[in-house]
Amino acid sequence: MENWLHVGFLESLKEDKAKVVKGAIAVFCHEAQVYAVDNRCPHMGFPLHMGSLFDGILTYHWHHARFDVTSFKKPA
């Protein structure tokens, strides 16, 4: 596919937890699936890759926002 961008290997991403691509895309691995989102927090614009991912929930520690990494919505 023409629009794909190689960002690394899955095993490497599993170890790193998060990766920043082209400065603006945060890439996460959860349950062997890869998710890419805008690296800016929608509230304040700070980098999301600096948050922590646990059980599919990305917690952004600057103001404790939480997002489901599979849908990028607030967890239920």
Automatic annotation (TrEMBL):
Q: Which UniProt keywords apply?
A: 2Fe-2S, Iron, Iron-sulfur, Metal-binding
* Cofactor(s) named in the record: [2Fe-2S] cluster
| Metal-binding listed as a keyword | yes
Q: Which SUPFAM superfamilies match?
A: ISP domain
Question: Which GO terms of the molecular function aspect are on file?
Answer: 2 iron, 2 sulfur cluster binding; metal ion binding; monooxygenase activity; oxidoreductase activity, acting on paired donors, with incorporation or reduction of molecular oxygen
Q: What's the domain of life for this entry?
A: Bacteria
Family matches, as CDD domains? Rieske
Instruction: List the Pfam families hit by this protein, alphabetically.
Output: Rieske (PF00355)
Cited PANTHER family: FERREDOXIN-RELATED (PTHR21496), RIESKE DOMAIN-CONTAINING PROTEIN (PTHR21496:SF0)
Q: What is the protein's given name?
A: Rieske (2Fe-2S) protein
